[in-house]
Design brief:
Layout: H1 6-23, H2 35-49, E1 53-56, E2 59-62, H3 69-78, H4 81-84, H5 88-94, H6 102-126, H7 142-168, H8 183-211, H9 217-258, H10 265-279, H11 284-296, H12 306-309, H13 317-323, H14 326-334, H15 343-349, H16 370-385, H17 396-406, H18 413-426
Antiparallel strand pairs: 1-2
Length: about 450
């Protein structure tokens, strides 16, 4: 554990100790432990955990991640809490881990799953659940079973948040602190984590009912089969999505190599676009698409001659017209990539202006697609707040005032206000986007066309 921060070592040891205390009652002389059930469930979970992870190239992708959570929740319904805590331990200790130190990672995973299963079992009992649920208990058994699932979800979320904070130094975001989270953000968080655990909880309940029925434990395996198939399909989607991400990374790297003065700009525009979209309470599915729009907004620069992009000095009118073609070039490059969805329109229209003086089509107001209006603000903001080889960055408050000044003519005021709120809540980190130092002498004229009123704001 020498490579792990001291705070993380203390946190991991504390969680392991808590898990050991939770499981300790099974060692008491008076304890009545159904060991055959414990061993069968532990073997079932371990048998699913071993092939549940596979390595593709350098990445570890889940081949059914969460497929065997119903086994743990069934254990919470069938066993005393201390015995239920033992069920995930063998599978967690034997399963594949993503990197070193493997022993610490496996032990941590075993401890967190043990505590989550123990907590689920206690929640089930506290709400009147009975050991070995029977079919006549429906629908009353649903409440304690779902409560156990939610407690399992809560414990896993809290434990994972603690390890991120201590091992990686990532504090809980301000938006997650008490009294500061808007209701839409709360709903998104609950639907993203609690809903899958409730589904697993229902599957675990079905397993527990079948386990105690006249058909015996073997019949409980049939509950896992459809879940395993659905998770295998999800794993296929996961690998396809990873391929999409790799394609986008390659395109962005190609743009950064070609236009060295805006290196890193695309990634930051994607991040700022997500900040705006979150403030607008966009659905989670759209957040990823708007991030793609921000990241790929300048992909059309691959079609612009390098000598124009890297020209030292003012652009001629003809060269400016060539650069102004990059939104159309970008749209042509990505028009066949179906998963980009609304991002394709944003790539085409992110240089349009609310007053109709933008390009390529001179759209006015809400004729401009919503994602394009988001990306336009994120693009201009990062261009102003990034230090480049031809000029120093503007402070964030100065950049926001300039955006507000141009709101209504160049930018959608709603997007500008959303960015201001997001920055107040989350802050912003800027960095140099060129390998060159900022010159102290006369500044170089930027190679890309201005997008602000009277060309005050210049984007990457």
């Amino acid at each position: 554990m020498t490579a792990i921060p001291a705070a993380a070592r203390a946190y991991i040891l504390a969680v392991i100790l808590c898990a050991a205390v939770a499981a300790a009652p099974v060692a008491l002389p008076a304890a009545v432990v159904p060991w055959p059930t414990v061993l069968l469930l532990a073997a079932l979970y371990a048998g699913g955990e071993l092939p549940a992870r596979r390595r593709d190239g350098d990445d570890s992708a889940p081949l059914g991640a969460g497929t065997f959570f119903p086994v743990l929740l069934a254990a919470a319904l069938l066993l005393p809490p201390a015995a239920a805590a033992l069920v995930p331990v063998p599978g967690a200790l034997l399963g594949r881990v993503d990197g070193p130190p493997a022993g610490v990672r496996r032990t941590w995973r075993a401890a967190r799953l043990a505590l989550a299963t123990w907590g689920a079992a206690h929640a089930y009992l506290l709400l009147g659940g009975e050991r070995t649920p029977r079919a006549p208990d429906f629908p009353y058994v649903l409440v304690p079973a779902l409560a156990g699932s939610l407690v399992c979800c809560l414990l896993l979320t809290v434990l994972d948040g603690g390890i991120r904070a201590t091992a990686v130094g990532v504090p809980p975001p301000r938006s997650a602190r008490w009294g500061s989270v808007p209701p839409p953000a709360v709903r998104r968080g609950l639907s993203g984590s609690a809903a899958p655990h409730c589904v697993h909880g229902l599957a675990g309940l079905m397993m527990a009912v079948l386990w105690g029925s006249s058909y015996g434990p073997f019949s409980a395996l049939f509950v896992l089969l459809p879940m395993y198939i659905s998770c295998w399909i999800f794993a296929q989607y996961h690998r396809e999505r990873a391929a999409h991400q790799a394609t986008i990374r390659a395109l962005v790297q190609a743009v950064d190599i070609k236009d060295r003065y805006t290196r890193g700009h695309s990634e930051r525009v994607g991040r700022a676009s997500v900040l705006i979209a979150r403030e607008l309470s966009m659905e989670e599915e759209r957040l990823e698409v708007v991030r793609f729009a921000g990241i790929l907004h300048d992909v059309g620069k691959l079609g612009v001659p390098t000598r124009v992009l890297r020209k030292e000095g003012p652009l001629t009118p003809e060269e400016r017209r060539v650069i102004e073609l990059h939104p159309e070039y970008g749209h042509e490059m990505v028009r066949g990539i179906g998963f980009l969805g609304e991002a394709r329109a944003a790539i085409l229209h992110h240089h349009e202006r609310m007053d109709g003086s933008g390009y390529p089509y001179g759209l006015v107001g809400h004729q401009i697609p919503e994602f394009a209006r988001v990306v336009a603000v994120a693009d201009a903001f990062d261009a102003m707040t990034s230090t480049r080889s031809y000029r120093r960055a503007r402070p964030v408050p100065v950049a926001l005032r300039e955006l507000e000044r141009c709101a209504g003519t160049q930018f959608d005021p709603r997007m500008v206000r959303a960015l201001a709120r997001a920055l107040e809540r989350h802050g912003w980190q800027t960095s140099v986007t060129s390998d060159e130092a900022v010159p102290m002498g006369p500044s170089r004229t930027p190679q890309s066309p201005g997008t602000g009123a009277s060309h005050q704001i210049r984007t990457g």
